[in-house]
Amino acid sequence: MARSSLARRLGAASLLTTLVLTSASCGGDTDSKATDASSSSDSSQSDDTTDETTDDTTEEASGDLEELSADEFYPAVMSAMQDAGSMAFSITTTGGPAATEMAGTMEYGDDGVQMQASSTGAQAMEIVLLDKTMYISGAGMPLPEGKTWLKVDLSDPDSLFGQIGKSTDPSFMFKAMEAPKEFELVGTEEIDGEPTNHYNVVMDTATYAEALELPAEVSKFMPKEIAMEMWVDGDNRPRQFRQELELPDMTGGSKTTKSVTEGKYFDFGTDVEIEEPPADEVADNVPGLS
């Protein structure tokens, strides 16, 4: 496969997975343990995004912190997300080909995820996800004249985005954590005033790639292990995550770049209103992105 094509696929993988929990950008070696830098991540992000959300929330956790086992983690967190129904999120990725800041809201139900989000940085864009269809505006896409949105059918296995579209559903990411290679309770920390349990989860790359249904040309560039830190509150809702990866040089060199993805989830139970873009502003395809 041409390197430019691979780079596009790596960027697409990073974008879609960043919407939920982590970047699916791929790289070289990464430690399977949490890094020391993560200890400051719970205080480094701004609280401004919280102030922008609605008052119709169920933000505070009502339960006491209880340590989850590796076997309990996946079903407990998924059940908590389904019970919450909706949430707001803010995610920052630094380094690598997909450095960006993203914020939005998502609604999670039996039919999957509905979402609206916007990002800044090199991949500045707006995203709407409704009924297994993603609408993307921006990102420097060469859209036809008069069109401002690209429509992507996430059920199309032949589509660049469709190949990894299921990563927009949090259940697929957590599915990769169902049988972790390593699972550790690091300690108890407060995230935005909420007590949380801080876990370090290490996943086998083959399991991770299979759960996210990543294309083979992407997964083969991934490290042998995927490590992620998760902060979970007393209601077993995810409050924060952090992941570091070493990304390959897309120009063909041997140098790698560290990519750090950090995100927060808040305003659980917030009202979410997502509207489909006007039909006359939507393009069904863009050359080179199918």
Task: Name a few traits of the molecule.
290 residues, globular, 20% helix, outer membrane lipoprotein receptor (LolB), chain A, 7 helices, alpha+beta, disordered N terminus, twelve-stranded mixed beta sheet
Count of DSSP H/I helices: 7
Q: Determine the mean pLDDT.
A: 74
- Return the CATH topology: outer membrane lipoprotein receptor (LolB), chain A
> In terms of per-residue confidence, which ranges show pLDDT below 50 for 5 or more consecutive residues?
1-58
Q: What is the CATH-assigned architecture?
A: Clam
C-alpha termini separation? 15 Å
The domain count comes to 1
Q: What CATH first level would be assigned? A: Mainly Beta
Tell me the strand percentage band. 25-35%
Q: Note the overall shape.
A: globular
Rg calc: 18 Å
Taken in chain order, the helices and strands follow as: HHHHEEEEEEHEEHHEEEE
- Structural class, by secondary structure, is alpha+beta
SS elements, strand count? 12
Report the sheet with the most strands, covering strand number, pairing sense and barrel closure: 12 strands, mixed
Going across the biggest sheet, name each strand in turn: 7-8-9-10-11-1-2-3-4-5-6-12
Helix content: 10-25%
Protein name: LppX_LprAFG lipoprotein
Biased composition (Acidic residues): 48-69
Organism: Nocardioides currus
Region (Disordered): 24-69
Summarize the structure.
This protein is 20% helix and 34% strand. It contains 7 helices and 12 strands. The protein has 290 residues and is α+β, with helices and mostly antiparallel strands.
